[in-house]
């Protein structure tokens, strides 16, 4: 059974999310603070973590960073804060997705299912792809740059594999949203922020990318 950790300080919302997810067949671990949630995740790792941003003590942004330092568990922010700065900051901290409260249970569970499908599909595809100094090994879940391994999250890995499969071709933000996140709706900022994170790991100079480039008005392309 798939386990979800809910880190939410509002008792009513935490209980509501717990009951809704349990009704959908998930095992739910719940925590009222980031400190409690991080400890719970270390002792009894969940398959996916839901994090509120406005937490007492350690806030949601730092909680995401701490979770991401430990492993590549899928992280979804569930927050009432819908400001662009907050969304981008949460994604840059390492979140895979961002949902604004109040959230419909069906939408949330659809996103959780998509995250699980992406995690299972991470090892699918050809044995290895070599693009210049970049080697992508889908079945092993590895990426090497000049022979050195890169630490990528599952979402970053999926994004890179999709771009590599169409190396030399431009993929629009909507195409990437559909193929990587498996959403036929959603915020294209998810794509922009994850491309930015990938560039910091792939490029010698992220400010002047040579591998993962922007084609203005069209989308992104991984250079052959």
UniProtKB/TrEMBL annotation:
PROSITE patterns: OMPR_PHOB, RESPONSE_REGULATORY. The modification 4-aspartylphosphate is found at residue 52. One of its GO terms (cellular component) is protein-DNA complex. Pfam families: Response_reg (PF00072), Trans_reg_C (PF00486). It comes from Catellatospora bangladeshensis. Keywords: DNA-binding, Phosphoprotein, Transcription, Transcription regulation, Two-component regulatory system. GO terms for biological process: regulation of DNA-templated transcription. InterPro entries: CheY-like_superfamily, OmpR/PhoB-type_DNA-bd, Sig_transdc_resp-reg_receiver, WalR-like, WH-like_DNA-bd_sf. The lineage of its organism: Bacteria, Bacillati, Actinomycetota, Actinomycetes, Micromonosporales. This is DNA-binding response regulator. Residues 126-224 bind DNA. Residues 3-116 form the Response regulatory domain. The gene is regX_3. GO terms for molecular function: phosphorelay response regulator activity; transcription cis-regulatory region binding. Residues 126-224 form the OmpR/PhoB-type domain.
């Amino acid at each position: 059974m798939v386990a979800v950790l809910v880190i939410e300080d509002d008792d009513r919302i935490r209980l509501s999310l717990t009951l809704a997810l349990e009704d959908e067949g998930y095992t739910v671990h719940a925590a009222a603070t980031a400190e409690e949630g991080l400890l719970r995740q270390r002792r009894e790792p969940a398959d996916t973590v839901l994090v509120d941003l406005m937490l007492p003590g350690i806030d949601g942004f730092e909680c995401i960073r701490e979770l991401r330092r430990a492993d590549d568990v899928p992280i979804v922010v569930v927050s009432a804060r819908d400001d662009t700065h907050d969304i981008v900051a949460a994604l840059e901290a390492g979140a895979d997705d961002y949902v604004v409260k109040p959230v419909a249970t069906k939408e949330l569970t659809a996103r959780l299912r998509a995250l699980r499908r992406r995690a299972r599909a991470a090892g699918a595809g050809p044995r290895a792809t070599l693009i210049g100094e970049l080697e992508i090994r889908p079945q092993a879940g590895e990426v090497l740059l000049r022979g050195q391994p890169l630490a990528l999250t599952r979402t970053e890995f999926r994004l890179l594999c999709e771009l590599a499969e169409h190396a030399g071709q431009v993929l629009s933000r909507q195409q990437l949203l559909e193929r990587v996140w498996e959403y036929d709706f959603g915020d294209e900022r998810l794509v922009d922020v994850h491309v930015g994170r990938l560039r910091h790991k792939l490029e010698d100079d992220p400010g002047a990318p040579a591998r993962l480039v922007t084609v203005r008005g069209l989308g992104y392309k991984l250079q052959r």
